Amino acid sequence: FPRSARAREAAFFLGRLAEDEGGDASTWYNRYLEESPRGPYASQALGRKMMLIRGRSGSAAARAIASDYLARYPNGTYAAAARKITGEGVKPSSGSWPTPPRRGVSP
Questions:
Q1: What is the dihedral of CA 8, 14, 15, 21, to 10 degrees?
Q2: What are the pLDDT digits (tens) for 9-34?
Q3: CB-based burial, 26-55: b 16+ in 10 Å, e otherwise
Q4: What's the whole-model pTM score?
């Protein structure tokens, strides 16, 4: 049982339980990701871990996890959050993005 698929999946669900109860869910998500890096819950485990780290230690601490998430799951459930953490595809608030030229009008 310890090396079975169900045991590996249990690590993910124990992470969810720990998360709901305020425990150290990231330890369980790490274990799941180590044992099942391509498992059925891998994107959820990585995304949840990213959000936990961000909530606990800030965006800078979660940036490497967010980059990993985007490399593995660019259209995943947590992709928008990962982009926000990494700064990818986020329009600067200063309005410094160039305006596209209009047809027939010189800049």
A1: 180
A2: 999 999 999 999 988 899 999 999 99
A3: bebbbbbbeebeebebbbbbbbbbbbbbbe
A4: 0.79
